Amino acid sequence: MAADTTDAVTEAGAGAADAGAGAATTVAVTASGAAIGYEQARDELIDVVRRLEAGGTTLEESLALWERGEELAKVCRHWLEGARARLDASLAQERESSDQEG
């Protein structure tokens, strides 16, 4: 089942990361098709890690938690990479503007 989470996160709206302010509407979608924001994914991931660290779960439950954790980590990476791309684009635009003025 872990292989199913490899492509678990997709971006809704092609090119949204390049859309400047429109990128704020970019949504991470999990393998189950549910849209999930960064904070929600991060908070759930923290809970998954706590449950795994506490132990007391069966092997099957632990594997399911691990797989969910991998999917949530991928969602978080998606959001963070999108934020990095938006910052880089903004900085590049700022540099271009200052180069044209100077």
Describe the protein in words.
The chain is mostly helical. It is 59% helix and 6% strand. It is built from 2 helices and 3 strands, in the order βββαα. The protein has helices at 38-54, 59-101, and strands at residues 10-11, 28-29, 35-36. A 3-stranded antiparallel beta sheet has the order 1-2-3. Helix 1 packs antiparallel against helix 2. The longest helix has 43 residues, at 59-101. The chain is elongated.
List the helices and strands and how they pair.
Blueprint: E1 10-11, E2 28-29, E3 35-36, H1 38-54, H2 59-101
Antiparallel strand pairs: 1-2, 2-3
Helix pairs in contact: 1-2
Question: Summary?
Answer:
The protein is mainly alpha-helical and 102 residues long. The chain is 59% helix and 6% strand.
Number of strands: 3
- Give the strand content: 5-15%
Count of discrete alpha- or pi-helical segments spanning 4 or more residues: 2
* Low-confidence sequence ranges: 1-25
The radius of gyration computed from the alpha-carbon positions, rounded to a whole number of angstroms, is 18 Å
Structural class by sheet pairing and helices: mainly alpha
Terminal CA distance = 56 Å
Helix content: 55-70%
Largest sheet: 3 strands, antiparallel
Q: How would you describe the shape?
A: elongated
| Strands in their spatial order, largest beta sheet | 1-2-3
Mean pLDDT: 79
H/E element order:
EEEHH
